[in-house]
């Protein structure tokens, strides 16, 4: 910064003698230099951005595990406890369901899940909001017929009254 101060002083001394257009060009060049020096991201330097809190990531992972277990074991009470009152689910077919509608659809579903395999799971934190993306394979039977469904899901969790609740899930088929 000392170098920048000296350059500014020299420019100021010369500026009073130079024509206005020259002074503006010099000022623009000086502002550009200042912007480059002040922005470490342009040079690939590390910032002081905080790393996600491991305790929060563990809490989200635990809630995700409860969600998977609830689906696998048809534990509707457990699932209901994970969902916010405003929960919405967008199915792979594009159908949008509220919390009560989604739970009723699960209860009425004749398929039985035997396994849920998850890969490529990532969690991004944004304050009191977490976005979880995952690739999954669901295996099971429906009326005696085996099935397999490969998909991707995005789960949105929000911390409300000290508890992480799922507010939205969107699933789609994947190859």
Largest sheet: 6 strands, mixed
Gyration radius (Cα, Å) is 27 Å
- DSSP helical segment count: 5
Element order: H for helix, E for strand: HHHHEEHEEEE
CATH architecture of the largest domain: Roll
Tell me the distance between the termini. Answer: 54 Å
Quantity of strands, as a count:
6
Overall domain count: 2
What ranges have pLDDT less than 50 throughout 5 or more consecutive residues? Answer: 1-15, 26-48
From the spread of the alpha carbons, the general shape counts as: globular
Output the structural class: alpha+beta
Classified by CATH, the class of the largest domain is Alpha Beta
User: How much of the residues is beta strand, in percent?
Assistant: 35-45%
Describe this structure in words.
It is built from five helices and six strands, in the order ααααββαββββ. A hairpin with a 5-residue loop joins β1 (83-90) and β2 (96-98). The relative contact order is 0.12. With 175 residues, the chain is an alpha+beta fold. Strands 2-1-6-5-4-3 form a six-stranded mixed beta sheet. It is globular, with a radius of gyration of 27 Å. It has two domains: 2-43; 54-173, Nuclear Transport Factor 2, Chain: A, CATH 3.10.450.50.
